[in-house]
Amino acid sequence: MNIITSLSEMQSTAESLRNQGKRIGFVPTMGFLHEGHLSLMRASRKECDVTVVSIFVNPTQFGPQEDLDRYPRDAEGDRKKCESAGADILFMPGAKEMYPEKPTVFVTVEGVSDILEGAVRPGHFRGVATVVAKLFNIVKPHIAYFGRKDFQQCVVIKRMVTGLNMDVEVSVLPTVREPDGLAMSSRNAYLNADERRAAAVLSRALSAGEELINAGVREAEKVRAKMRAVLLQEKGIVIDYAEVADPETLAPVEIVNNGKVLLVAARLGKIRLIDNLLLV
Fold it and tell me: What are the CB-based long-range contacts (under 8 Å, 24+) for 247-253?
């Protein structure tokens, strides 16, 4: 596995691979890798000639009171995981390499960036869209792989790719979960034992909403109320939202049918968790 830290070297390597007719798969991450990330790498290995993984904790997507400085990091463990998953290139730029000057150019995806996560974390998706656009220009992938756990992020990135006519396919793969249903996330490392046990309530709330719909309930507000009630079964939980939305626009719906998405976000102590379930 080749480790690259320089933007210019990554760009020239990607250009050379494309000139050789190689199909590049790309898995952008912020590190502290888990099985969800590795599943994306394995998918890339199956579908592409070369798999590039990036690790970069992007400062522009963190708010002033958020956890940039204490975001979990494990460079050596991540390197070993990438190697074991068959990654060909590990791209690990520093913040000064990605942002040599104070950023003045940003990508904003209107309409889907300022609701749900965007309402709770203003400016977050501007930072996400900007860094992903930069990474696409550096790595030059044919296919970029993302996990469905960050559902709104995937919607934002797809909109960006379409709106800017980017020559990259966005592949969104299913959420990978722990045995108790908790969606795998790097931030799960923050949870203490009691919080970790309680965190599984997010997936239980989604399942309860789905069960209500499968029983014939079509009023979205009843589904929202059910998800909130399940979340509140855990003491100390603070709900940010429990929503039933259109998966393309993320607008709330009043009537539930196939193809809608259930989304929840809640806080356990200082830790904030999100999850979703796409109805089929």
Answer: 247/151, 247/155, 247/278, 248/155, 249/111, 249/112, 250/112, 250/115, 250/116, 250/152, 250/155, 251/115, 252/220, 253/220
